[in-house]
Amino acid sequence: MQLTNRAKKLEKKPMTLAERAYLPAIFQGLSITMRHFFMKKATVRYPEEVRPFSNVFRGLHVLKRDEQGRERCTACGLCAVACPAEAITMVAGERKKGEEGLYREEKYAISYEINMLRCIFCGLCEEACPKAAVYLQPDKMAPPRFERDEFIYGKDRLVEPVSPDERSIRGIQLTPEQADTLRSKLQSA
Amino acid sequence: MIELPALGWQSIVIFVVFALSLLIATYCTYAERVIAAFLQDRVGPDRAGPYGLLQPLADAVKMFTKEEFFPGGANKALFVFGPCLAMITALMSSAVIPFGNNMSFGNNAFFLQGIEVNIGMLWVFGVVSLGVYGVMIGGWASNNKFSLLGAIRAASQNISYELAMGMALIAVLMISGTLSLRDITLQQSVAGEWHFWNIVKQPLGFIIFLVCAFAETNRTPFDLPECETELVGGYHTEYSSMKLGLYLFSEYVNIFVVSAVMSVLYFGGFNFPFQYELRDWFVSSQGWELASAQNLITLLGTVGLFLKIFAFIFFFMWIRWTLPRFRYDQLMRLGWTILIPLAVFNILLTGGLILFGVI
């Protein structure tokens, strides 16, 4: 039975003298390895050198604010429904008077938690969101931690920060010095 | 040569050679890893120190702090003696290798060589073949089937390849007529004559010697004594801590010594092309004294010899990361049915060439 048209018929012939002498084959092998000696290395020296993420990389979630700094999420629960890993839980609440500057819609998420141990970073929550609130950032990922409960990201770590002082990188709060450098960078830009 | 300072000089040379062979063996571990990495498109250890140059130090600390383990039912004395013997024999053989020509200070002339004996080649062979006892005793004392198998393999492999190696050597001795490594070196370069290194006269003998050298040092493709795919770790399965370190170390010292022997026997030792012309140029054009010009040439020759040795060490590692291991029956067939007849043929050929005055 023919499985593929690339199959090569092999005949077992007695070896020629050159083949039996080993040496030509050894030199061939040596030349191959020597070629590799001078080739470009595949290694990425990690802490000094970071492999760039793909443009479509799906990393750590962020809950976006609108252009006026109000939370976009309206706690509709579509992301939680769409989530195949059941990683998202939320509690909805009604916006009070005087909170119009904080929340965009009348309904908002009092708590919004994503369990990063359950999350498979498929991005279905992002697709399901009708308010363009939840996004998977292409440049950040959930860092390793020691305790399980530290992987449950609440609103404190998910909502996009308003000011540089609150801005977090990979879910870690910045030190005052880091915040300062970030602020000066933002001002110069 | 004056007696007393010569003895002091010899001990200095011996000490330097001892330190150098240990240093080179240490950095062989690093070189092996880096070369392996480069041949596989990686970069190798680069964390400890600049370019990972302190890696051997880190490895040594690791080796020393590991648990000393003695397997149950092992012969303790022999178990310790095995790696010691392997190391001692590996270090002993470098004593007779001429690392340089003579140096002269005033009226005293010294050789850059531990001991100059007229049976240097025999000494190297005797000591190197003793080295297999280290492996055998270690494998036997471990009270482990795999270790014993590895030891038996080592013994039979070394005996088989020593025959071909010795016969390849006989052809060199037929040309040189001496067993002294220094004389063999000096014969490969004569002032005022167009003189070739022994590799030109003995290409076949060199290939036989090279293959046997791989087998004698238990390097891939002949590393069956420690064949990890079949025998766990071979003769050093049960070894841990610095006792294992000594075994691994002695392998690198052996490579260093065998590389040095091959450089001396076939690649002119401390000679390098146009050395006499260079010396005469220093004397005639630069107005140097003959003695100081000779000293400079000697030092350059030593550097040259080490470059040859490093080239061989690189070749050993290059081969290791290119060729797969032989099967045991293939190893034996290669040794007994190919290399030994070839070596005998080489002796006949050399004899014929000498008879008709070609070499």
UniProtKB/TrEMBL annotation, chain A:
Its cofactor is [4Fe-4S] cluster. It catalyses: a quinone + NADH + 5 H(+)(in) = a quinol + NAD(+) + 4 H(+)(out). [4Fe-4S] cluster 1 binds at residues 73, 76, 79, 129. It comes from Hymenobacter lutimineralis. Pfam families: Fer4_7 (PF12838). One of its GO terms (cellular component) is plasma membrane. NDH-1 shuttles electrons from NADH, via FMN and iron-sulfur (Fe-S) centers, to quinones in the respiratory chain. The immediate electron acceptor for the enzyme in this species is believed to be ubiquinone. Couples the redox reaction to proton translocation (for every two electrons transferred, four hydrogen ions are translocated across the cytoplasmic membrane), and thus conserves the redox energy in a proton gradient. The keyword Metal-binding applies. It is an enzyme of class 7 (translocase). It is found in: Cell membrane. PANTHER family: NADH DEHYDROGENASE [UBIQUINONE] IRON-SULFUR PROTEIN 8, MITOCHONDRIAL, NADH DEHYDROGENASE UBIQUINONE IRON-SULFUR PROTEIN 8, MITOCHONDRIAL. The gene is nuoI. It is a peripheral membrane protein. SUPFAM superfamilies: 4Fe-4S ferredoxins. This is NADH-quinone oxidoreductase subunit I. [4Fe-4S] cluster 2 binds at residues 83, 119, 122, 125. One of its GO terms (molecular function) is quinone binding. Belongs to the complex I 23 kDa subunit family. Its main location: membrane. NDH-1 is composed of 14 different subunits. Subunits NuoA, H, J, K, L, M, N constitute the membrane sector of the complex. GO terms for biological process: aerobic respiration. Binds 2 [4Fe-4S] clusters per subunit. The lineage of its organism: Bacteria, Pseudomonadati, Bacteroidota, Cytophagia, Cytophagales. Residues 64-93, 110-139 form the 4Fe-4S ferredoxin-type domain. InterPro entries: 4Fe4S_Fe-S-bd (IPR017896), 4Fe4S_Fe_S_CS (IPR017900), NADH_quinone_OxRdtase_chainI (IPR010226). NCBIfam families: NuoI (TIGR01971). The keyword Cell membrane applies. Its EC number is 7.1.1.-. Keywords: 4Fe-4S, Cell membrane, Iron, Iron-sulfur, Membrane, Metal-binding, NAD, Quinone, Repeat, Translocase, Ubiquinone.
